[in-house]
Write a structure and sequence with these properties.
Blueprint (H helix, E strand, L loop, with lengths): L1 H9 L3 H13 L3 H4 L5 H25 L8 H29 L8 H7 L6 H23 L3 H47 L2 H25 L6 H5 L4 H6 L1 H13 L7 H28 L1 H6 L19 H16 L1 H17 L18 H21 L9 H6 L5 H31 L2 H22 L19 H27 L2 H28 L30
Helix pairs in contact: 2-7, 4-7, 4-8, 5-7, 5-8, 5-9, 5-12, 7-8, 7-13, 8-12, 8-13, 9-16, 12-13, 15-16, 15-19, 16-17, 17-19, 17-20, 17-21, 19-20, 19-22, 20-22, 21-22
């Protein structure tokens, strides 16, 4: 089989094969997501995470056979939620892939400037990029279903129906993933064709964040309908009509022969959506490569701000104003930085359902709800930490010399400007939203105390994240792989969540007593002042850095010197 695949690949044109290999390594952003700029290693770790989820699903399938359902209704209540959960998870993974590679399928400046002068046809470039994306999607589908794609068809289809259920399952997974990815490409392609490039870049930023939020919200908050009565209920028809999960759930049951006749319209919608999405995405991509290549060269990737929208011109000095505006505009205009920052927001959204609809702890029924405190803590921590990590990604290495030649202020002022940027961009919006909800739904005194504590927590987090930060945001060379988002993912769920819950419990009990609240506020105030003084002292002893250097590693050959043994006389 591998020899057959190698022979088929050898028959493809040389230009296609070379471009396919290059685009396959560029699907993932090297600077923000790779580990030591090693894309195969990153893809291997990503595949490992998906395989782990597949093993969990397979274990759940075999555990369901310990107490098999005795009636057809009970079997249906086992099968339908499992099928909907598997399809929903596959659609979420496809959505994450679409967001991670946002706009990378379309011609960028590097493609236009490097490939346009060469005798390479636009359709060859397009087919190579589509093939690279298809490979990544196929790897994701295979890894996420490597064991569950065998276990669940065997459990739900039985020995006799296993072959048919297996084919229906795998076709549905590939079809659903292709539909979601092609739908995203269709929307992007139509926007790039109908809108001027500057407006397209502005809307693309908002659309990327919105798409990520929609995918996560659909996965965590979409209900499962497990009986025919729920499917036929009038209040659920809008969910069925608008959710691709139920479209491809009906398609799966249509292919394996177990679909009720009243769900045939959902299966037709899945077939229609797949055909329209695939045809529309290919047409939009082809037109984009034929019509927008020149626009990519002529117009910048970083969009200038609109003439009617201006920030205040003073944040406590010209240096602070410049760094705050530079940080905000770099985050808004650069796709690489948006992607890195959205990753941290996604972690917060993914953990959000863990705090919702939880019963109160014993003895806290009359206190402020725990999720009312824990959710702002969670979002505040991840947004501040995420923005601080994104600060290390440079906007342009060639532009760093401009900031180096204009360094005319002490290091303390640069650290103060970075602190202000973190407070205004990451902490202030969340604090305002949390304070608004607190004053709307809680007593005024309790709300004021909670807002004060949350503000002090924001100051503590900001100064803690700035320890050792001796650079200008977005203006220092970056060693690829330092972000190490895979490690951040597991640390967030294994360490951050218990810490957030513990801190929320402390505030919840403190709000019940004015003395405890005053003590907590005083402790946080002292901690915030101490961290501020520490950063100010360190800034006075450090120098501004614009080059991120790797640690010095001394390589040894493990050779040991053995002194000669003195000869002894036998006399």
């Amino acid at each position: 089989m591998p020899k057959l695949i190698a022979n088929l690949l050898a028959r493809l044109p040389l230009q296609f094969r070379v471009l396919y290999q290059q685009f396959l390594l560029r699907v993932v952003d090297l600077e923000s997501l790779s580990i030591e700029a090693d894309v195969p290693r990153f893809l291997g770790q990503f595949a490992g995470v998906l395989i782990m989820f597949s093993l969990i699903q397979a274990l759940a399938a075999f555990m369901s056979t310990w107490a098999p359902p005795a009636t057809p209704e009970a079997f249906q209540m086992l099968a339908w939620p499992a099928e909907q959960r598997l399809i929903s998870t596959m659609l979420l993974v496809a959505g994450i892939i679409a967001v991670v590679g946002w706009e990378s399928t379309f011609p960028d400046r590097r493609d236009a400037m490097v490939l346009a002068p060469l005798p390479v046809r636009s359709r060859t470039i397009l087919l190579a990029k589509v093939a690279a994306w298809g490979t990544i999607l196929a790897i994701a589908v295979l890894c996420l279903n490597v064991t569950s794609g065998l276990a669940w068809p065997l459990v739900l289809g039985g020995v006799a129906g296993f072959p048919r259920f297996l084919l229906a399952y795998w076709f549905t997974m590939f079809a659903g993933s292709a539909f979601l990815l092609s739908s995203v490409l269709l929307v992007q392609g139509m926007m790039s064709l109908l809108l001027p490039r500057r407006i397209f870049l502005r809307l693309s930023t908002l659309l990327q964040i919105l798409a990520f939020g929609v995918f996560l919200a659909a996965y965590f908050f979409e209900p499962y309908l497990i009986v025919p009565a729920q499917m036929a209920a009038p209040e659920n028809q809008w969910i069925l009509a608008s959710s691709p999960t139920f479209w491809f759930f009906a398609l799966l049951n249509q292919l394996n022969g177990s679909m009720p006749t009243e769900l045939a319209w959902l299966a037709r919608r899945a077939w229609l959506g797949l055909a329209v999405g695939a045809a529309g995405a290919l047409s939009a991509l082809l037109l984009s490569y034929l019509r927008t290549m020149r626009k990519t060269i002529e117009e910048p990737d970083l969009v200038s701000s609109s003439r009617w929208l201006h920030w205040p011109r003073a944040f406590g000095g010209g240096l602070r104003t410049a760094i705050v505006l530079f940080s905000f505009r770099s985050l808004v205009r650069s796709r690489q930085h948006r992607l890195a920052f959205v990753f941290y927001l996604a972690l917060a959204l993914a953990a959000l359902p863990l705090f919702l609809n939880q019963p109160p702890l014993p003895g806290t029924e009359k206190m402020i709800p725990l999720e009312f405190i824990a959710i702002p803590y969670l979002f505040m921590t991840l947004t501040i930490v995420g923005l601080r990590r994104v600060f290390a990604l440079p906007v342009s290495l060639r532009a760093n010399w401009v900031l180096q030649t204009t360094q005319r202020f002490p290091m303390r002022r640069y650290v103060g400007a970075a602190r202000l940027a973190l407070l205004l961009i990451a902490a202030l919006p969340l604090w305002l939203i949390s304070a608004l909800f607190a004053f709307l739904y809680r007593p005024a005194g309790e709300a004021a105390t909670h807002a004060t504590i949350l503000a002090l927590v924001a100051f503590v987090l900001v100064d803690a994240s700035l320890i050792g930060f001796n650079r200008v945001p977005f203006a220092c060379s970056y060693l690829p792989g330092k972000a190490n988002f895979q490690l951040v993912f597991w640390v967030a769920f294994l360490m951050l969540l218990p810490t957030v819950v513990g801190a929320a419990v402390v505030e919840q009990r403190a709000l019940a007593s004015p003395a405890k609240s005053s003590l907590l506020i005083a402790g946080l105030l002292l901690l915030a002042i101490g961290l501020w003084a520490l950063n100010r002292h360190r800034a006075g002893m450090a120098s501004l850095s614009f080059e991120d250097e790797p640690p010095e590693v001394i390589t040894t050959l493990h050779l040991r010197f053995t002194p000669p043994v003195a000869a002894t006389s036998n006399r």
